[in-house]
Amino acid sequence: MMKNNNNSRKIAQFMPLVIIFLDILCTALLLMIGSRVYSSISIKDAACTDSATLLNYTVNKLRSSDGTGTVSIRKEGGASILVISEEHNGRVYETRIGVSDGAARELFVEEGSELGIADGVRIADCNEMKLEFLGDTGGTGKNAAALKAVFDGEEAIVTLRSGGVR
C-alpha cells in the first residue's frame, strides 16, 4: 500500500513538468510555422507591390505625356521599349521605359541617342514587360485606341487620349 502511494506522489510531482515541457514544445512549433508563413506572405507581397508600383508609374507617365504622335513601342535587343516623345525648345526628347537586368528602367534622352535602356534609372524589380497597342487596325499603332502593358503578369490597359501614336 505504501509503495502505491509513493508512485502516485512521484507521478503527481512529475506531471506539471511534463505539461510545461509540452507547452514549451507547442509554442516553439507554432512560432516556427508562423515565421515561415509570414516570410512567404512578405515575399509575395513585395513582388505584388513592385508590379503595382511599376504599372501605376507607367500609367501616370502615359497619362501626363499622351498627345498626338507621342507614344510608340520600339524593340531594343529583342525586348519591347515604351517610348514617349516630347518637344522642348525645338528638340525632341524621349522617355524610354523598358526592362533590363531584372529591373524596369527609365531613360530620358534626346531623340537618336545611342544610350540603351540598360543605362536608365531603376524603377522597380521586373523580369518581363509586354506592350501591345489595342484597337490598332493596321498593326502600326497609328490607329490604336489603347495600350496594354503587362509587367510580371500584372496588367493595365491605358486609353490613349491622342487616339494614335507616331
Structure description:
With 166 residues, the protein is of the alpha+beta class. The protein is 39% helix and 34% strand. The protein has a 5-stranded antiparallel β-sheet with strand order 1-2-3-4-5, with helices on one face. It has a 3-stranded antiparallel β-sheet with strand order 6-7-8, covered by helices on one side. Strand 1 and strand 2 (79-88) form a beta hairpin. The chain starts with a helix and ends in a 7-residue tail after the last strand.
Set down the secondary structure blueprint.
Elements: H1 2-65, E1 71-76, E2 79-88, E3 91-100, E4 103-110, E5 121-125, E6 129-134, E7 146-151, E8 154-159
Antiparallel strand pairs: 1-2, 2-3, 3-4, 4-5, 6-7, 7-8
What is the overall pLDDT average? Answer: 80
Structural class: alpha+beta
The neighbouring-strand order within the major sheet is: 1-2-3-4-5
In DSSP terms (H or I, runs of 4 or more residues), the helix count works out at 1
Short description:
The chain has 166 residues and is of the alpha+beta class. 39% of the residues lie in helices and 34% in strands. The mean pLDDT is 80.
